[in-house]
Each structure stands twice: as C-alpha cells, then as structure tokens.
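## Example record

The block below lists the input lines for one assembly entry, exactly as stored, with component labels intact.
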Amino acid sequence: MKDRAAVAGIGTTEFAKSIDRSERVLALEAIAAALDDAGLTPGDVDGMSCYSMETTEEIDIARNMGFGDVTYFGKVPYGGGAGCGVVGQAAMAVATGQCNVAVAWRSRKRGAAASRPWAGVAQRVGGDQQRWSRPWGLLRPVDEIALLTRRYMHDFGATRDHLANVALAARRHANRNPAAVMGAKPMDRADYMAARWISEPLCLFDNCLETDGACAVVITSTERARDLAQPPAILHAWAQSLPTQHQTMTNYFCDDPLRGPAWACAEKLWSLADAGPDDIDVAQLYDAFSPLVLLSLEGYGFCERGEAGPFTDDGGIELGGRLPVNTSGGGMSEAYLHGFNLIIEAVRQVRGTSTNQVDGAELSLCTSGEGVPTGALLFRADR
Amino acid sequence: MIEGLLLPQLDECSAPFFEYAERGELRVQRCDGCGLRRMPPRPMCPSCGSFDSSWEAMSGDGTVWSVAIPHPPLLPAYSAMAPYNVVVVALDDDPGIRLVGNVVAGPDADLDSVDPHSLQIGALVRVVFPPAVDDGNGPIVLPRWVLRDVRSGAPPSG
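Predicted structure tokens for the full assembly:
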C-alpha cells in the first residue's frame, strides 16, 4: 500500500489542563475541524478508526457528525502504543477499498486528578501486566518504566543529563508553539535537576503532561487527497509490532527487555519503505516518559544501541540538530493525548506548517509507545 | 480509595505460585514437554506447545536486575512507606526468570526497612516469605527478598 493513502485533514481542540466540555464533544469538535481542514463533509466519511481505550463510541460519533453509511470501523489496543496503528489501519482500509474516507481520533480528559488511574483500582489486581508487579508497590506506569530506565542507565552509561536533553528539547520546541500547554513556561537544566522525584531515576520532568483535548485526522486515497484543500501527507509506509514474548509495560520477562517493540516495528517499517533512518528529516517519537525517546532513537536505527544518550547531546534532537524530535513539544510539553498530537505534528512537518518547521522536510516519522505493542507512520511530502 | 496493599487476583495459572509461597517455597512453572521455565505462568509452552507443566523448586537465590524507587503520589498504604524500593530479581537457578519484588530487612519488615538508595544492580539476594495478608478473600503470601551475606551465604540476621 506504499504511497496509496494520505492524511488529507488534521484537527484538534485546544489543549489544557482542564476543559469544561466532555470527551464526546471534544471528539466531535476535532473530527469536524479535520474534515473542514480537508475540505470534506461528514457525508463523505465511510471509515472510522480509534483506540480501544477511546471512551467515545463509533455509533455515537457517526450519528452526531451525520456520517452516511460507514463500511469500515476498527480499534487498536494498548493505549499509547495504538495511535500509529489507528491511522495505519484506516489507511489500509482506504488502500484496500473497504472505505474511501476514514476519520481517526483520540479524545482524552486526564487533566483532573480524579481522572487518574487510582479511580479504577481494586484491591485485587488481575492480568499478567499487573498481578506480578503491583502488589509489590510498582503501581504506576512511571514505576514500570523506571525499572527499565535504571537498567538502561546501568548497561549503557546513560545519565540524567541525557534524560534532561529529551525534556529540554521538548520544552524549547513548545516555547515556540502557542498551542502547547507549556508554551509560555521556559525550563532549563537546573529546573530539571531540582524537580521532585516521581519514581527514581525518573523525576517530574521525565513524565508527560496530563491533558484534556482531542485530535483527529482524515485519511483518503492519495489520488483524492491531491484534489482536496491541503497538500497531502502521503503515508509512504507504516508498521505495527507486538514482538516475541513481549509483556506490555512490565516487559521484564523476555530475553532482552531493553530491546522493546520499536526494534521489530522499525524492521518492518524500513523493509516497506524506500528510505532508511538516515533519510528522515524529522521525527515525533512517543514520549510518555523521557527514556522512551532514547529507546526509540535506538530501535528505529538513528544511532547504535546504547548510544542514544550522546545522540541527544549538544542539541542533537532540537531544531537544527542531528534529528529534530518532538517539534510541537510532544507529550512532555505540548499535550499528552496518547501520542495523537505527535501524528498531527508529523503531518504539519510535511505540509511545512509547524511552528518549529524543519526546512524542506520531506520524510517525517511518527512513532507510538515504546514499551507497549506499538506502531509507526512514515509520511512523505507530495513533491 | 484502596487503603491496604494490593493483592494478586488468582487464576488457575497463577494460584500455585502463591500456594507454594504460603508453604515457604519459591517454585517456578516448568514445561513438562521441553523443560522450558516460564514467567508469568500461563497455560501453553511457547517453545513446544505443551499444555502440561509442573512447579519446580528454586534455590531462592537471586540477583537484583534493576531497582526503582517510587515517591508519592501513591496509594495510601504505599505512600506511607515511600520512598521504598521495587526490584526485579533474576533467579540464580535460571537468570531468564525474573520476579518483581522488594528488598527488605527481614521477612516481617516493611518495604521501607532497607535504605532504597543503598541498593545496586547486581546485589545478591535471597527470597523470604512474609506473613500472609488476608483481605477477606483468602490469605496471600507475597515473597520478598533480603540481601545475602556474601561471605557466609546466609541471610543477614537483622
């Protein structure tokens, strides 16, 4: 399906710690904005794709939006690992003729403390992701990733300065993005080092934001997208991976826990693309936690294994650096919507409309969560 | 909000691990077909496809593979002990088998009984079996770990 489908429209709500509208209304607003952006109407939509964790429901979205007969709908599991698969599977449905115009979306309100994971915790925890860890006090996603991070630092000599590089790059990009939650809040290395611990070796600024907001994209054939309102972001290649013997988040049980889903996803992605990591102009790498960016830089082949820390030194992942990463501010400084805002930014980069635009960006990579079954999208500009 | 420690919900695959722990034994599921040990326990061997397995006794010695130190906000029972350590231990009998746990000063000691910052990857540990916790749905023993005295090979007395 190389180059056969494209993102023709993008839409978002505002991003904020607290928005006084429901996830349902936010989803509708973002989808409507994406259709407007594309120059399409709700009656054109016949495909729908979302996260399994999405609380808004296809039939409700379709009835509110005024969609016609929808002939493809699907969901992708594993939270922050889902986003690229949500868009990729919609594109696959377009490329195979199961639908002509698909919308993909994520609406999420997690700014309020009452919406955090404690709300749903029961005394007895089931499922192999949690049963073998939570009783011993490994309660939160940040704790789960802290264990992998400590081992990564031990094995490869990465330091807190390398983690800080990730957080600071995101913040500097966000400071030039008026839509970013942290747009007006500068941060320096001393701020990072002084921040309180959340789960050592990870501090507050190694964590993503908790945000209210929604994002949506419209996917159609590249041929049709060329006749619409925006320059198409052509989906050159995409991939998903659920690697052998993987356990989502608490991935301590396989042979090599630090060789996460990014590696298998990258292998598939590059096998389908007429390009490799050296050809990529800009990347949005899923960043619920700063170490995931380091693991992704290695997994997708931007550097050798264990060398992601030094890769981020000297502005390596900032605009103008070796590989500008998370140019909207990403999950750490723009908004955390399970990585969907990263997809929006990846599209902006090939359109040439980012507030941290990489000059002449032609190949724009976006990845979903590392440490969970994941996906990746490789967009190219239509020129 | 939950006030006590979280406990595992048992199913037919996970229950034997905790039943053995209640008897003071650390056992790991092992395939009857090809001998591959697996963790977490589950119905089918990913190597040979056998549905038959047994529970093999381990020596209880292990090596710390990683350490995290959670700080609040946490559930109340955990917050009261924070910062505490959570470790991943690789079993000396089969380093491919790793278990999440805590290093404590002794079987009856709380999660904060060892200075978490004193723990290093590579620390040698031995399993201990704290008293059972009962939330009204049956007693559960959560195995934890103590630092091994390298010279004598015995757990420290404290």
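Chain A has a mean pLDDT of 97. The domain at 5-112+209-381 of chain A is CATH 3.40.47.10 (Peroxisomal Thiolase; Chain A, domain 1).
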